[in-house]
Specification:
The protein is mostly helical. The chain has helices at 3-17, 30-39, 45-58, 62-66, 70-76, 83-101, 109-112, 120-129, 140-148, 157-167, 170-186. Helix 5 (70-76) crosses helix 6 (83-101) and helix 9 (140-148) packs across helix 11 (170-186).
């Protein structure tokens, strides 16, 4: 089976399995999405949602974060991994939003990547979920499933992103990444994938029962 055919079948099957998907982070505006995604690096979305429930009540604007006391912000997000570095980046990020973007979250990859603490994964999530642009969010689930299914042989996020953009129609890219998260949590887990009951098994390059 050619790779583009496999990609089309996987997209179709996962849409049937998970017709309604969205980002699992809680947010109500672009700034909250940006901050929550920065906090989610090497941390579970569930933990981030617990922390941001109170965090976003305390800090409501870019100005609030930009003027935050560093030690106090560290305490506010202490239960999240790498909280010191994340607190520093959040303050610097919001200062740049004020200085360069009139306190608004920009809507291009190049501009988002100028914000401290913002890599391609964060930028793509913001572009896709906030601005509804084509976006490939390469998280651990996306890496694992795209490799196992044979959609990529690469291991670096940027190369995986490039491979998937070539295979997946723009309008399907973000949805597929969210579905990879769902399927990766429920079926194609890191340690004990449930291959015998996996509905994309017939299209999966790693399927052991062909």
């Amino acid at each position: 089976m050619r790779k583009n055919e496999r990609a089309e079948l996987i997209v179709s099957e996962l849409k049937l399995l998970y017709p309604h998907v969205k980002c699992s982070l809680n947010y109500s505006n672009p700034l909250q999405m940006l901050i929550a995604t920065q906090l989610s690096a090497q941390c579970t979305d569930a933990r981030v949602n617990i922390v941001t429930e109170e965090l976003f009540k305390k800090y409501k604007t870019a100005e609030d974060f930009a003027q935050a006391d560093y030690d106090e912000l560290c305490d506010d997000i202490r239960s999240i991994g790498f909280f010191r570095n994340k607190a520093k980046n959040i303050i610097l990020c919001c200062q740049r939003l004020i200085e360069c973007y009139n306190s608004e979250v920009p809507d291009t990859m190049d501009e988002l990547l100028t914000l401290p603490g913002t890599g391609r994964k964060t930028a793509n999530l913001v572009l896709g979920d906030i601005f509804h642009k084509p976006a490939v969010v390469v998280d651990t689930h996306c890496i694992r499933l795209s490799q196992r299914t044979g959609l990529t042989s690469n291991s670096t996020p940027e190369k995986i992103e490039s491979d998937l953009k070539k295979l997946i129609p723009p309008e399907e890219q973000l949805g597929l990444c969210h579905r990879f998260v769902q399927h990766g949590r429920l079926v194609c887990t890191a340690r004990s994938p449930q291959c015998s009951t996996c509905s994309i098994g017939p299209f999966c390059k790693s399927f052991p029962f062909k």
